[in-house]
């Protein structure tokens, strides 16, 4: 076993933090970069940086544990595979390779809530990246309802990193390009009043719980376990994307959470690619559409307003399925619906008379 000298400063991981966030904090307080920390703890060469958030190599965990005097099992628990045991690999945003020896070598390429970071600085608490921010299904902060973005809201090109404040020495988040602190974007000042954002944030929370192995909020499908909830969500994802009903119509109908203007940059029919590779706006539309499909007319319970009577939402998106020209997907749609919890299955089949 390699003998490593303990680093001078070794902050402890924060509950719910991702490993790269903790490594950024360790690097910042010791005056080194993340690639330099990986080289020291993992023995990697300049061009060989392993993944540091999911499926982390055991030698790197062992080296970090020695360098920071932390039990290796404590660091292993931060791995996203451990934090989200029910999550498939496609649930996570794609991993971006760290580039060594450049001006933003310690930047974190993970989306973040700028309001959360701004709050940390205002209260003097330590900023960190939360594990749920790595998930493709989570597009909004459930507390502030702001969208999660990986780039600076000021210059729109830099990533965030943690650095020691020049006056008080505490860790703060700063853009690696313009060095400004995260702050609420002016264009998002009214986002809390936008009903779709509330819906998306609630669905993201339930998905996070289910991926952790915890039962989701019963508002969606009643009291069901995490595995059943994720199975239904997987079916819904397939219906909205892979089945490609009515060339995307279910995402832009009167009941749906998107407009033709919003989809102008995406184009119809939708591009065929995994959900986690879609753009932020496309992913958010799909999650909102799934949320509406699950609650139907019960959407009033969520205190969410839509420009159509709640009773019309019961048919969404199932009434579009029988109009679809994609006949090959019909039988598979019915097979998937047959596995759903009784209330949702009955409502879906009610609007599929040709297949009931």
Q: What is the structure about, briefly put?
A:
With 356 residues, the chain is mostly helical. The protein has helices spanning 19-29, 34-42, 58-68, 72-76, 80-83, 114-123, 195-211, 218-221, 226-242, 280-295, 318-321, 330-337, 342-350, and strands at 160-164, 171-175. The longest helix is centred in the middle third of the chain and has 17 residues, at 195-211.
Question: What topology does this entry show?
Answer:
Layout: H1 19-29, H2 34-42, H3 58-68, H4 72-76, H5 80-83, H6 114-123, E1 160-164, E2 171-175, H7 195-211, H8 218-221, H9 226-242, H10 280-295, H11 318-321, H12 330-337, H13 342-350
Antiparallel strand pairs: 1-2
Textual characterization of the structure:
With 356 residues, this protein is mostly helical. Helices cover 35% and strands 3% of the residues. It has 13 helices and two strands. A hairpin with a 6-residue loop joins strand 1 and strand 2.
Summarize model confidence as the mean pLDDT: 83
Whole-number tally of structural domains: 2
Order of helices and strands: HHHHHHEEHHHHHHH
The main β sheet shows up as:
2 strands, antiparallel
Strand order of the largest sheet: 1-2
Low-confidence stretches: 100-104, 189-193
Structural category is: mainly alpha
Number of helices: 13
Integer-rounded radius of gyration? 22 Å
Q: Based on DSSP secondary structure assignment, what is the total number of beta strands?
A: 2
Determine the N-to-C terminus distance.
64 Å
- Beta-strand proportion: under 5%
Principal-axis shape: elongated
Helix content: 25-40%
């Amino acid at each position: 076993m390699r003998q490593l000298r303990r680093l001078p400063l070794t902050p402890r991981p924060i509950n719910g933090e991702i490993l790269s966030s903790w490594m950024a904090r360790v690097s910042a307080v010791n005056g080194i970069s993340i690639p330099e920390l990986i080289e020291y703890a993992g023995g990697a060469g300049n061009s060989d940086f392993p993944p540091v958030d999911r499926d982390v190599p055991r030698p790197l965990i062992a080296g970090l544990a020695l360098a920071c005097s932390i039990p290796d099992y404590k660091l292993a628990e931060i791995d996203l595979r451990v934090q989200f045991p029910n999550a498939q690999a496609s649930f996570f945003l794609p991993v971006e390779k760290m580039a060594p020896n450049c001006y933003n070598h310690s930047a974190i390429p993970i989306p973040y809530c700028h309001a959360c970071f701004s709050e940390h600085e205002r209260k003097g608490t330590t900023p960190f990246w939360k594990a749920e921010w790595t998930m493709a299904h989570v597009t909004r902060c459930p507390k502030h309802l702001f969208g999660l973005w990986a780039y600076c809201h000021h210059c729109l090109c830099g990533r965030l990193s943690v650095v020691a404040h020049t006056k008080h020495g505490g860790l703060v988040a700063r853009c690696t390009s313009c060095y400004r602190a995260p702050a609420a974007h002016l264009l998002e000042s009214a986002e809390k009043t936008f009903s779709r954002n509330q819906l998306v944030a609630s669905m993201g929370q339930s998905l996070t719980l289910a991926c952790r192995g915890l039962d989701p909020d019963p508002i969606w499908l009643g009291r069901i376990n995490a595995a059943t909830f994720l199975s239904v969500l997987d079916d819904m994802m397939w219906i909205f994307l892979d089945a490609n009903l009515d060339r995307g119509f279910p995402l832009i109908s009167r009941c749906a959470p998107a407009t033709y203007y919003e989809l102008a940059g995406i184009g119809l029919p939708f591009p065929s690619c995994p959900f986690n590779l879609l753009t932020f706006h496309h992913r958010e539309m799909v999650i909102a559409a799934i949320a509406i499909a699950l609650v139907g007319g019960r959407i009033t319970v969520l205190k969410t307003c839509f420009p159509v009577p709640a009773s019309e939402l019961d048919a969404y998106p199932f009434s579009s399925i029988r109009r679809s020209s994609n006949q090959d997907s019909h039988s598979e749609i019915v097979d998937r619906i047959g596995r759903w919890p009784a209330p949702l299955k009955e409502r879906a089949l009610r609007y599929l008379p040709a297949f009931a």
